[in-house]
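Record 1 of the preview.
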Amino acid sequence: MKDKPIEWFKRIRTACAIIEGAIEKAIDDGVTNVKDLDVESLLKDADDYTKKVAGMLQPDTVDAALKPKNRNATLKFVKAYGEYMDFVLNGIEQGKKLVYHYFETVPQVLLAMDMIPVCVETLPVLMAALFNDGCEEEIDALEAEGFPAHLCSAQKGFVGAYLLDRVPAPAYFFKPSVPCDPSNLLFQYMSKLTDAPYIIFDVPYYTNERAFRYYKEELDDAYQRLMKLSGNSLDEERLKKHVELTNKQLEYIYKIEDIRKNRPCPDPGFHRPMDFALYTIFGFSEKVVDYFKTVYEEAKERVEKGISIIPEGKEEIRTIWTWAFEGFDLSVYHWMEEEYGATYLICGLTILPEEFVGYIDTHDLDSMFEGLARLTFHYPMSRQVTSFADTWINDFVKAAKLYKADCAIFSGHMACKHGWALNKLLSDAIREEAGIPTLRFEMDIADKRFTPPGEVKRMLAEFFETIRH
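->
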């Protein structure tokens, strides 16, 4: 694979292996931070590339991952995502068809077609979360081509990675027409760059049952077009296996969403970005299920034993995040808990109400397609911003009340102009109907240069101090 542009896949896979080894060594040695971790011993048999990647990792993120309340779930995450990266790398080596898809297009059908699905938005966010320089060089490479800075970094980073020969050209692009025009056009540009066909399917404005029937027909047609173009047929038994894993994953997701209603919240906020990354490989493997099972079982044990994830003596500040998480410094969520007792209940990239999605019927092919369509129709962000503002407002006003939140935080991704246009309506509704204060600030989910980590912490600290007093 040396002659193939796979650097991003290889680097993320290597990072997963390093973090896995660091957590296991920290547990064995009884340490809980990077400062006390015997890094020299950990890397003594590592090759030069692994040592290079280790030096690129964000120490604060690794430090947060080593904390007892975070490390077991993080260990399951890096094992799951590492397995997925192996799958991608092996598939590329074997010459299987690579499909780059949008984050709310879940991969089960593509897997059942013996393709290699890769979510375009996940990798730049992971790069930003894991590495000191994130995907800044890749973002700059695309902007040097004349693209404006206000486009989404979760896509700019990926296109830039292609321009710099760090990801390969795919066989196909696959995307819904929502929620934003810039993402449609950046996928179109990637398609033009790579000569790979771009399959886009229409999504209606409404969220009622009639709209869903239309959506399902469009999605079914898109898969049929992909099968016709590729010559790959769908293996129904393989699809059933991935759908069954999806249902297991959903079962734990719903349990986790429910158990966070406890006060204090028993589930650390450090998990939310990992939740999102594994949403984008829904139903991939048992290891993905293991992550959500671990998150739930640890939260359940804390509730049963009366164990808090915030330091003794601190009063909990329960936060809901009405848009995206801040993806370039994951240590901020551990910092919030330790410094201010601020817990992270749910956000716009992880909200997945059971009442709208439920489970997927595996009875036959049509029932599985219908269930997967319903999952993506109500996928986080897509459901909230495709239709009337009322959908987003109602979902988060309800969440604020359901989780007994103390405040709502809108960390607005600077590229999501549709979110900024609606946020005042949401903030007003939350204050009026849930009776809690709101904070709004602008950031870039995968580029720390827009709003640096120190500035994010300053704004959060000022807000939490105001709530305390």
